[in-house]
Design a protein that fits this description.
Two copies of one chain form a homodimer.
Chain A: H1 7-14, H2 16-28, H3 33-38, H4 44-56, E1 60-65, E2 68-73, H5 75-107
Antiparallel strand pairs in A: 1-2
Chain A binds a DNA duplex (30 and 30 nucleotides) through residues 15, 17, 32-34, 42-46, 48-50, 53, 64, 66-69.
Chain lengths: 112, 112
DNA sequence: CCCTATGTGCAACCATCGGTTGCGCATAGG
DNA sequence: CCTATGCGCAACCGATGGTTGCACATAGGG
């Protein structure tokens, strides 16, 4: 029932800015702090901090080339995160539907 | 593509303590700051703050009776939150699968 | 070869958040 | 009436998401 969820992964994906960053990197096959910040409403430094966190939890990897540092999404790890999200939503969905069924049964006059 | 998501709802549900609180209230049909905190590893005051936030975003409602304040989950609003979670996971899932298909195509030697 | 433009990294600072402790107040009930 | 209990408020603390400012390294045209 309760969360078999890796809170680190969940909260990494929980931030809206990080979600948009992952989205951008997926769409363009990667990015740098500078290029990402150009498409986001936050500064390069904020993006850099997020990239650091994302790398810490393994959702992205980076490689320095020249004076640039390119980041790439680790699709496997993101897939695992998505899987966890969906398992939590599924659990709640089930519980909500159970409650709905009970409510309907009560309304029909036959409690269990 | 990008998040048609209500960030307030998402981040309300993003906190692990709040998830457990919602879970408990769903299971027991409601609760107070005190009763919830007895089953959680945090203080009553921490729970009270979370309840305040949850009420602000409409995921719970409260009613004072005597010296108690009972909270109840708004199932409709929670259902909406769950729906948004699942729409985001679905979007990412689709994108990851698309990338996987492309990768396989390239490996087979036939790019598009 | 130098000088400038560009991309990074590091540090200080701020507000918010999740958490704590401590206190005062209101009410339920022997 | 007096005590136990539930609640609310305030101060404080560490982490986090954000900012500004600065120093440093490298790419590349004069």
């Amino acid at each position: 029932m309760s969360d078999t969820v890796d809170d680190e992964l969940w909260s990494a994906v929980g931030d809206p800015t990080r979600r948009r960053m992952l989205d951008l990197m997926l769409a363009e096959g990667g990015g740098t702090a500078t290029t990402l910040s150009e498409r986001l409403p936050v500064t390069r430094q904020a993006v850099a901090k997020h990239l650091q966190l994302l790398e810490r939890v393994g959702l992205v990897h980076s490689a320095a080339s020249g004076r640039e540092r390119r980041f790439r999404v680790d699709e496997g790890q993101l897939a695992r995160a998505v899987e966890q999200l969906s398992s939590v939503t599924a659990a709640w969905d089930a519980r909500l539907q159970r409650i709905k069924r009970i409510a309907e049964a009560i309304q029909r006059g036959q409690e269990n």
